Amino acid sequence: MSKIHVSTTLNGDAAEFLCDPSASLLDALRDELGLTGSKEGCGSGDCGACTVVLDGEMVCSCLVFAAEAEGGTIQTIEGVAESAVLHPVQQKFLEHGALQCGFCTPGFIVAAKALLDRNPDPTETEVRYWLAGNLCRCTGYDKIVRAVMDAAAELRQDRPSERTPA
Amino acid sequence: MPPFDKEFFATDRLDLAPHNLFDLVDRLDGLAPGFAAIAQPRVHFAVDGVLEADWSRDLATASEVIVLPRVGGG
Amino acid sequence: MNAPETMKQFRPKEFRHVGTRPVRPDGVDKVTGRALYGPDFKAPGMLWGAIVRSPHPHARIVSIDTKKAESLPGVKAVATGKDFPTLQSLVMHVGEGASDIVHVARNCLALDKVLYEGHAVAAVAATTPEIAREAAGLIAVEYEELPFVLGLEEALAEGAPLLHDDVFTKGVDPKPDKPSNASMRVEMGGGDVEGALAGAAVTVTGRYTMEPVHQGYIEPHACVASWGGDGQAQIWCSSQGHFAVRSLTASVLALPQADIRVMPLEIGGGFGGKTTIYLEPVAMILSKKSGRPVRLAMTREEVFRATGPAPGAVIDVRIGADADGTLVAADVEFKYHSGAYPAVDAGAGVASAIGHYKIANTRVVGTEVLCNRPAAKAYRAPGAPQVNFAVESAVDELAGKLGIDPLELRLKNAAVEGDPQTSGVPWGRIGWVECLEAAKAHPHWSAPLGPNQGRGLAGGYWGNYGGPSTVVVSLTEDGTFTVTTGSPDIGGSRAAMAIMAAETLGVPYEQVRCVIADTSSIGFSMVTGGSRTTFATGKAVVEAAREVKQVLCSRAAKMWNVAEDAVEWQDGEMVCTAGEKEGTRITVAQIAPRVAFMSGPVSCVAGINAAGWLPGFGLHICDTEVDTETGHVKIVRYTAIQDVGTAIHPDYVEGQIQGGAVQGIGWALNETYIYGENGKLDNPGFLDYRMPVASDLPMIDAVVVEVPNPDHPYGVKGVGEVPIVPPLAAVANAIHAATGKRLNSLPMSPDRVYAALHPEG
């Protein structure tokens, strides 16, 4: 079976890879492009650990064929921190202790950033429903929800905070 | 000392004067061969009411040892 | 809301770092996707493996034909159970309990029989994952199907299909002469239970049931093994204990432990389920045969079908009380699934059943039952939540019958320091009453409820653990410190270790960095399990840090030509306190570059067998709102109160409490293994095995009570397991309060709640 050549924009840079027709975008990211930040918890779109943004839409990359990304723009956890500085969502996860094992964390951070990109002032309920596609087994979600709410507040104030270098 | 009383000794009380817990295990193994082989993976000892991790501790002043199933946890 | 401050009233002294909330040292890597977990590691030239699993719940393996698979281009190795060396029975304790190494090996690859659907029977390694999967499909296994048994009482019935012909019930006298599916029976207690129950003013009787549940870690099991031609091997994997991976793998393959080096990758959750091995010896065999590194990784479906779970249970409870509420007798008898191989939760279940109450007459009996399900594995306070669900439901029912407030009834009967546990061993400095008092004082307990809402509470405990740990604290050339442990960090323990080292050394937190070394780079440490790491490994950190201080003080004394006892350690500085050099100081940063010009580098190792661990107690308050039209139960408010000894890093202590409570809520309301009539698991995925998501839950108010452990330098008791114990009954009691209906079977899913509310159908 011959491989498919795919050209994309990945975290702002041009990226090309070869993939099997059956390969998922997650497989391509992890195995062809070496970006293992996106995790596979289920392979069936139920856990959200592989969440990425493809052409502006939040998707489970395990449910997207790698070949579908042709010509597309992909943002992964590796591209969330900008200019070598953590994004407020990442910073607040650290400050609130919103991760324990950290395996689900990349998916939560990509999803939370996607939420705040379109809704800068979400209610707690809105945060909880937006993140309902991401499973965390360690935290009980309490500190995750608090971190996202706090990141939203910081982004609204647009205050220059002391962020940790990525 | 359940379940070891029924599994090995047919009694739940024994009068022994071991000098430490290694010695106790040897003596219990003498009474019920096979006990020593499972003691490390399956047994905890409480000496006078306190769980004892050091089997070499001198038991000269101890009055009672309770034999318990070892619980590790998840 | 969370309690704004930890409750410090029981804490005898103030600390500089202990109790603060700094950013964890591994944090940035984990929020940026850089951290490498089990499935993330790749070795050059690596092959990809796949496992062939049994489609039958119980069958004899007649033959395995691997020829077609072997001839597929790209296939480099095939393995079956026959590739393991012949093993003698050997019981080992590796973290979660005792296991026979023969059973561990057979669970990795079956030999003569398969004992559950999903049991591994063969494996392949190939140049791509696609070829490996295709090759796995070409392996032809001929089975002779056998009758199977899934249920606890069915497995114990006369004539039930027998899983093992060499398992005789342990813990019964006389020794049985026939093999049985009951692998062990544990009985404890004392007094005259029947007499006291007969004389009790009020008694309650109930039977409580549940099916197995899974630990539900999001990271599937994965490893890479590379076995060199000289017999030495490297394994990269995530686990709760890489030393356990080493000893189990070495035992299964009959190798010297020093020939295997296990590199700990970051672990994506374990909850007890990653204290054993499934893939490592198989990857080793494939690597040996192919001469290349081999990766084996499970899919989510494989995780559900072949790992974990926690046992399901049938529990019978009778409890009696005097009219004033004094508990006079308790009779608890439970049966737990052990699955395909003998497991060990019964002993812990017996110890965790009723010890939180003073009861003069008790009988607690636990039986482990073999059946054609995956081999049960430890799950957070293994064996405790099941029996606690029954006991705390029954105590709640008793409070109702007596007309006594359920919190007051618990306070009246609560065990305190010096009271005997069920085993007869007295409790040490426990904080159970302090938790009950904190509940009474908490605004949640007296807050008004809305329509269709009810409030329940339940208390529980877990014994915690200590045991062996090795730690090295080293001074770097610039005066900063490294702390090296052998304890995998599953929820922020590197931060706790750095805090304890910084506290002991009197230096800033950022000047201490903690890493986890591989099995060849540090001495033995027991698994991260049993809520032992911050207690036991923490104790070793403090011991090694104290030795570093001592060594540096003696170096300074020598340098200044003064007596050793004339130098004191003060906040990261050595100070001369007597003689003509009195008042002379040198900082760690100043002495660090000089130590190489003295007797040598300063690096202190503490290898300890940590004793003096103490159990943890918790009390949970739950408000539910029940939709009487659908049977759906919503958790509207939840407070989890727990004595932790001392919270080293309160964020991660609260996080453990919140996470454990939510796992318990999932167990109570949704989670369950569902098997079909054919003995096959019907819900091996996160869609149908429904774990709680963010929108199912309110904030979880974690209230940290601190009754310090006198046997730990900073008072630590252990945190992680206790919080999964009380939720099952707390939710059930809240549903009862909301509806008047008591649900005795888990999960309390909408269909069951609806059926209880509408018995007419």
Automatic annotation (TrEMBL), chain A:
PROSITE patterns: 2FE2S_FER_1, 2FE2S_FER_2. Residues 4-80 form the 2Fe-2S ferredoxin-type domain. InterPro entries: 2Fe-2S-bd, 2Fe-2S-bd_dom_sf, 2Fe-2S_ferredoxin-like_sf, 2Fe-2S_ferredoxin-type, 2Fe2S_fd_BS, Beta-grasp_dom_sf, Diverse_Oxidoreductases. It holds the Pfam family Fer2. Transmembrane segments: none annotated. Keywords: 2Fe-2S, Iron, Iron-sulfur, Metal-binding, Oxidoreductase. GO terms for molecular function: 2 iron, 2 sulfur cluster binding; metal ion binding; oxidoreductase activity. This is Ferredoxin. It comes from Novosphingobium malaysiense.
From TrEMBL, chain B:
This is Thiamine biosynthesis protein ThiS. It comes from Novosphingobium malaysiense.
Automatic annotation (TrEMBL), chain C:
It comes from the Bacteria. Coiled coil: none annotated. GO terms for molecular function: iron ion binding; oxidoreductase activity. SMART domains: Ald_Xan_dh_C. InterPro entries: Ald_Oxase/Xan_DH_a/b (IPR000674), Ald_Oxase/Xan_DH_a/b_sf (IPR036856), Ald_Oxase/xanthine_DH-like (IPR016208), AldOxase/xan_DH_MoCoBD1 (IPR008274), AldOxase/xan_DH_MoCoBD2 (IPR046867), AldOxase/xan_DH_Mopterin-bd_sf (IPR037165). Residues 32-147 form the Aldehyde oxidase/xanthine dehydrogenase a/b hammerhead domain. It holds the Pfam family MoCoBD_1. This is Oxidoreductase. It comes from Novosphingobium malaysiense.
